[in-house]
Amino acid sequence: MNTEEKFKRYVLPSYGRFPISIVRGQGSRLWDSEGKCYLDFCAGIAVCALGHCHPVVTEAIRKQSEVLLHCSNLYRIPQQADLAEFIVNKCMQLPGKVFFGNSGAEANDGMIKMARRFGHRRPAADGSPRYEVLTFLKSFHGRTLGSMSATGQAKIQKEFDPMLPGFRYLEFNNLEAISHAIRKETVAIMLEPIQGEGGVNVCDPDFLMGVYQLCQKHDLLLLIDEVQCGFGRCGELMAWRAINPDVRPDGISWAKALAGGLPMGAFWTSDRSINDEGTPLSSIMDAGSHGSTFGGNPFCSTVALTVLREIVAQHLPERAKKIGPQIRATIESWGLPVISKCRGLGLLIGIGLNAQCLPTEEGKTPASIVVEALRKEGLLSVPAGPETVRLLPPLNVSDDEIEQALSIIKKTLKQFNA
Ligand SMILES: *Cc1c(COP(=O)(O)O)cnc(C)c1O
Asked: Could you write out the DSSP letters of every residue in 103-115?
């Protein structure tokens, strides 16, 4: 039985997969089982920030695997402490504490639990606990019951109802809508600085500031989902800082790029005080309140710290800040009718498509048609919503590789001029 047949027979068909089997990676390139080489501008959907099999990461994996993989959070784990210190001091640069799990959805679930507990500690005026988290249309927060319920997209929730109660979805970048929506039950506002899955929609700096001010005014938590955009991709280590450095979040979630391909998620909670006694927000998640068997184990923690240090040492956020706008400007300068607009921040880039320039195919979106055409030409990308092609190259992609990718994109998109 070949891989295709085994998938049909043994693997849950929950993904629409491209008809190739990936067998090897190096830097910004992947190879399939037929030996075809691809430029990887998907990077495991923003996971492989240092590209594939980076020597520093491979060495960290080899070394730690000979010492200790796992021991449990029953004990202190020095590598977890070192990683948390780096995230708080180097990445967040704000006092707070970190919890480690295994994925983005799980990180968001943890933040939502924290918000609900905060709603008990700081209830509504009548003493009833607050629990409602306002999120946004076209958001994506994950596939667990909690994070799916937070996600403002009907297609993600289809036939999995009832959703977890306590979420409402508002229009992104519309401050007016939020101020009307806040009510006695509301305890938090949660957003992505850039909606990745929802179409590469960048948060307005004024909107982010407005949300922050509404949170302060109504005693709400500001929760930021940086699962996709965090750790340098958007031109700063933290994407919210690339958008508006003057806001002060209460919680941040991460995953994708954090451990360079090993499964790891995390969320940070501010140490700001939540009452007159100076109780820090982070302290409400006390012993027994939350947990994860694998979360923050010595192996994933060491590798994650290696990845984050390398991102900083190689100045990769600065590089993303510089080359992202150049890539977008180049793509727009072609003036191709099929391209409506190029959006994004740093190396999270969305090429908006004009659907009328593309053929209509049963079960296919304009974005999936273009992504498949690019793949055939040797470039991997990923759709973001129905009409946007997303580019997420490794942060250390070379100038040469960018030029090759741009030439493939130009050549491929030129075909769609109907
Ligand atoms: C990918 C993603 C998630 C979910 O992460 P998983 O690791 O797949 O659970 C959540 N939020 C955002 C913004 C994402 O891009």
From this structure: SHHHHHHHHHHHH
